[in-house]
Each structure stands twice: as C-alpha cells, then as structure tokens.
Write a structure and sequence with these properties.
This protein has helices spanning 2-19, 48-57; strands at 29-32, 35-39, 62-68, 75-81. The protein is of the alpha+beta class.
C-alpha cells in the first residue's frame, strides 16, 4: 500500500509541475462580451481600434476604450457596451 501512495503522490506532483508551465501565457488579443485587452506590441503593426470595434460588433455592442499602458508588456483595455440611449442606429455586424 505504501508504494501505491508514493506513486500516486509522485504522479500528482509531476502533473502539478507540468500544468503550471503554461499558466502565464496571454495572447496578444483576448476578449469576451464585456470587453477585452490588446497587447501594446500590436499598436504599430495593426489597427487596434478596428480590432476592438469588430470584436464588440459581434455581440451587438459598441466599444469604449478604458486605458492604455504603453510600456513594454502593457495592454490596451476596452469595454463592450450597449448602444447609448438616444441612438437609433445599431452597430454594424462584421462577418468574415
């Protein structure tokens, strides 16, 4: 019984070590229906404003940029909001 317990403990420790290796990876563009983040490294190469607008339009919402950390490894954050009151037009849905 002791060898089974030691083997199970070794397997559990091995799984925990291998699982934590990929815990810190964040893609350059990540979001959901409430908003998202865009890596500041994409600022000079792509149109980040168009990326955020297209992302929020998938959910029928408009974009509002919240903050921009322009340091190395920083992110631009945005929120997807419903169309403000008083607006009759809906956001354009983008289909690729």
């Amino acid at each position: 019984m002791r060898t089974i317990g030691k083997t199970a403990l070794a397997a559990l420790c091995g799984a925990m070590i291998c699982g934590a290796a990929h815990a810190d990876y964040v893609p350059p563009f990540k979001g959901n229906d409430t908003g998202g983040i865009i890596s500041s490294s994409l600022v000079g190469t792509t149109d980040v404003r168009a990326m955020a607008i297209a992302h929020c339009a998938q959910y029928g919402k408009v974009v509002k940029f919240l903050s921009a950390d322009r340091n190395y490894g920083g992110y631009i954050s945005f929120a997807c909001r419903w169309v403000p009151y008083g607006r009759r037009d809906r956001p354009l849905r983008v289909r690729y």
